[in-house]
Structure formats: structure tokens, C-alpha cells
Description:
The protein is of the alpha+beta class and about 475 residues long. About 35% of the residues lie in helices and about 25% in strands.
Amino acid sequence: MTSNIIKFVHKNEIVELSNPDPNETLLNFIRTKLKKTGTKEGCAEGGCGACTVVLGELKNNNINYKAINACIAFVTSLEGKQLILVEDLVSKNELHPVQKAMVNYHGSQCGFCTPGFVMALFAMYKNYSSYNEAIIKDSIQGNLCRCTGYRPIIDAAKSLNKESGLDHFSRNKKITLGLLKKIKQRNIAIINGNKKYFAPKSVNELKSILRQEPNSKLISGGTDVSLIVTKERKNLNSLIYMNSINELNYIKENNSYIEVGATTPLINFESFVKKYFPDFSQILKRYGSVQIRNICTIAGNIATASPIGDTLPLLLALDSQIVIKDKSKTQILPLNGFFIGYRKTKLKKGQFIHSIRIPLLKKNIFKAYKISKRIDDDISSVCASFNIEINNNNKIKKIRIAYGGMTSIPKRAFNCEKILLNSFLSDKTIDKAKKLLEKDFKPITDVRASKKYRMEVAKNLLEKCFLEVKQKKLIRINA
């Protein structure tokens, strides 16, 4: 069954939107159609958190609460979800425990950012039973405040440990579950003027739409693509929303590799990958914010081909592959060589990324580093990744080195790798390798960093990696 109506739950009711504008942001809908102005616009690019709202999603007869940035989500993405706004937290003229905590601990000054903080902390309140400093800071890393300072906000969050965790959303859970279940799974097809929007529920339906609409823009979280609307002020005339395809939301593993489905949220992969590649998980913790990682995907990161996409150098260093499908066939391509120019890939019309395969390299040492102006919620100036296998004689048997932020595409440092392969870990070899980075990369100067700074950082990260590797090898030998 196909429908042109978006259905979602808000304030214990199912709301229906007939043929909505596919380019209308959720933030604009909230402020202009629902007339709820607590949700603010600060940056219109998912960077400040003033627009944070929470979505409730039906999962295994439970409700999964996610904080997202309303400024870069389209209203169509509400399909089948519960929308929770800052105004909805009050029940019978009684403030929610999160709101009370912000009042009691003086967590607001000018107030512009406060609703976003409240909603980020509300999502934390619903997802955890206790709140330590690490959980609190992670929960609000996507929310910027320029006047209150974070101490009273963190104090307010810590005080929630005294609460029971119950609220009117808990009490109404059975009602909400019933309403969400009433919204039947449907393929969505919307035509609004010259704009089209499709939200298929299966891979076969996706293939069928791509046959008819090969020029459509594929989006998952849309955290990059939506900026075409919010920042460039252009229209996206045909959109295919992939995040409604549950069969692409998975993480599998075997003895050889991890396979990640195209619609798997980055936040799910972040916790999974920690046991295999801790540095990968640490880089992901600094990837945007919780609001971003709740909806964005590795496949989206690959498809947009940003030279500063933090997962890309890591995937390159790990010799990852991508599974690409079209209407009739499947291809498995190495990620190395997939990027052919600034934001250009080998992906053709009618094709889509089905999944990503990341080899499990049990003998290897994997290290990754991100350098940015802020520790959280910031774009990389340089991101570096190293995948190294060293034999018992301390000789480099295999090596893959990749950088992001150094050129128009994320790429491997082939000349650097060549001098290091079959070499011993000596200062002389490392110095030669550092010099060869100048042959591998010609960095640019932009607002984030100068070309000189980028090259110096790239060299320093190479040296840092091998200093840490040498220390690790000594510990292994001594053990």
C-alpha cells in the first residue's frame, strides 16, 4: 500500500499531513504550522542544538527516544514516530523533572539555547537510569551555550539522579504504543507541485522507484544533503528517504568482516565497533553530536564524499569495501578508489549503497586521531588513521595510512606507506615517511586551518602513532 499522507503521534493524538512539502524542515513546521516557538533556530545546520526535539520510535514493543536537530530534518521524516517538543514536557501545569532541575540550578541566562538543552537532557533522562558526568557531557555535546556556562547545566543534570525516572510519558506509554502501532507500515509517495518524495519500506521497492526516478537524491539522516535547502536555499525536487527501510538497518559479523547496513544509525555502530577498534569508537564519539549520530549513517558519509567525513579515512585504512546494488545486480567495490573528485564518487544513477564491509584484522594495530578546534561537535582540520601489522622482529609487514582534511578527497598516503613497508620502527624511517607526506598531499588553506598547519599536524600524527606503537610493542615483549 502506498500513501501520500504522513502520520505521526503528537500529544496523544495521531496527526495526519496530506501531501506536505518534502523540502519543509521539521523546525519550520513546528514554528509556523504547530505554532510552537519554544524550538529555536540558531545555525540551520545541526551545529548548535537550539532546535533539538525528541522523536519516539516503536521498537520491539517499546519506545526508543532520540534527540535530533529539527533544523536539518524534513517534516516527512516524522512518519510513524512520536514528536515531543519542549512545550509537551509540562503536564497539568507541572514542570517536567528536567525543567525543574534547570530552574533550581540556574541553568538558563538569556534562554535562547535553553529549550534545546532541556530536550537533550530529556532524551538522556528517558534513555538512562543514572547519569554520570560522561553520559551528561555526551548528551549535551551538540548544544552550545554562550552565556550561562556549562557548570550549572551539568549540575542540573546530575541532580536528576535523585528522581525516579518516571514522568507523564512513562504513565502514558501504553497509550502511545497503541497509537504508534495504529500507524501501519506503508510506502510513502508524495507529489507537491514539482517536488517528489518517496519513502519505500523495502529494498525491492527502492529499486522500483530508482528505475522510475533515477535522478532522485537519496537521503538517510540527511544531515549533509538537507543543507542544500537550509543553507544554499535550493530545492530538492526528488527525494528518496532510505531510513524507512528496516532491512538495511543492521550490523552483522563473521570471522572475516563486520557488515553495516546502509540505514544503520552511526550511534549504534559507535557502541558496537568499540570491542574491535576502540579508536574508531572514540572518533565516532566526537562525530558531530548525539543528535547527528542518532540519524546519520556510514553509507551517507560515503555517498556525500566529504573530504572531512570522519569515518572515511578510518574505513580507507581498514581496507573496507562497499556493497552497491541497482535494479538487477550487486557489486562489491573497494572504498579505495571510490572517491574520484571533490564530493564525487563512482556511484552511478540508479545505484545505491546497500552496506559496508569492514575487515576484522586481529593481528593489526589500528590507531586513529582527530584534530579540530573544539573537542566536541566540530569538523576536523585533520583526521588520520593507521592500520599496521608488525611481525615478531618489529618489522612492518603490512601498513595502510589514510587522511581526511588534507585534500579534496579522503585518501591513502601511498608514498608514505611504501617507505614504511618492510621497514623497522626506527627514527630514521619515520623521518623519511613524514617527508613523503608532502608528496602524498597538497593541503589547502581554509577557515579551519592553513596548509602549513595541516601538513605539520599530519606529520606529527604519524610520529605520534609510531611512538605509541613502539611503546605498545615494548610492553608486549616485556609481558
